Every structure is written in C-alpha cells, then in structure tokens.
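Backbone-to-sequence.
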C-alpha cells in the first residue's frame, strides 16, 4: 500500500500497490503492520456498506463523540464519491480544516480518517456503494453530526444535492 499524508493531521489517502500480470493484478487493501508503521489505528471492529441509488446523494457530516470516537478506512467499491473529512480535534494544528478526495471503484483509492474527524460524501454517479471499516462499535448515544453546508467550512460540493436525509439536513452548525 502507498500512504500519502493529506493536509490534515493524521489523515491519509491510501492507494493500492499492485502486482500485475496477464491475469490482472493483486493488491493488499489492509495490513496491520503497515498501518501501525504510519501511526494509524490497525484494529477494526466493525464494517458497514452504504448503497446509494442516485447521483447527488449526500451523507454527512457524521462522527462519533468521546469516549467512542472512531477511526475509519473508507473505500468506494462501486461508482464514485466526493469524500470529505473535517478535523474537529481542538488541539490539532488543522482544527476545522477540511480535505476532499474522489474515491471510486476505478481508482480503488481509500481514505483513512482519524478519530475526532467528521466524515461525509456525495455520490458522483447512480448506484454507488461505499465500504467502511471502523475502529469502534457504533454507539447511538455518541452519534453526532454537523451541517454539510456550514459556512464555517466552505466545502465546495461538486453537484446539487438531490437526496439527503432529514437527520443530515437538521444537524446544527459547528460551534468551536
């Protein structure tokens, strides 16, 4: 795997290191040792899939509050997404900054999201599926979110939002 640090403290884009031949290619999508070498969580306790029917679907910005903060490894397995993270760690040098990357089935890229970050995405095509690995179990009482269009972050979503849950629409603006 090839780890590229983002502009946000502790967040990485992870690309596959392919071994190719006439059959196609083989690549590791996770290795605890390599994650640990980069100082990343290497223990995932839960995996989830998000299937999204229509282009323009927006999910986010979600996070889990202490004491159940979670790191995530996110990959788009079908279609493509504009994936966004926001650093919500007050002690971080990149506090309140965001980072965005396109994840797609074609580029097979992953995004490692540290604890204390909000995460969301917008689908760039119909029938998009996203696979998540999480370092903590989901705890409903710790589930939180902030508004996807909060002016404090100035995220430039690539498309009009066509589908968004009522819950995501009603999250509050961020308060430091």
């Amino acid at each position: 795997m090839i780890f590229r640090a983002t502009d946000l403290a502790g967040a990485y884009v992870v690309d596959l290191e392919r071994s190719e031949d006439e059959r196609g290619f083989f690549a590791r999508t996770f290795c605890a040792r390599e994650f640990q070498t980069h100082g990343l969580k290497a223990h995932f306790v839960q995996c989830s899939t998000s299937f999204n029917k229509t282009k323009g679907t927006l999910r986010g910005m979600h996070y889990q509050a202490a004491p159940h903060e979670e790191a995530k490894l996110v990959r788009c397995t079908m279609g493509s997404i504009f994936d966004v993270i926001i650093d919500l760690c007050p002690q971080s040098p990149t506090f309140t900054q965001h980072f965005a990357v396109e994840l797609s089935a074609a580029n097979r890229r992953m995004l490692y999201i540290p604890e204390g970050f909000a995460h969301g995405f917008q689908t760039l095509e119909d029938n998009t599926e996203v696979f998540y690995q999480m370092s903590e179990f989901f705890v409903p009482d710790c589930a939180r979110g902030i508004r996807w269009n909060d002016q404090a972050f100035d995220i430039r979503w690539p498309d009009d939002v066509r589908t968004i849950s009522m819950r995501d629409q009603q999250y509050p603006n961020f308060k430091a």
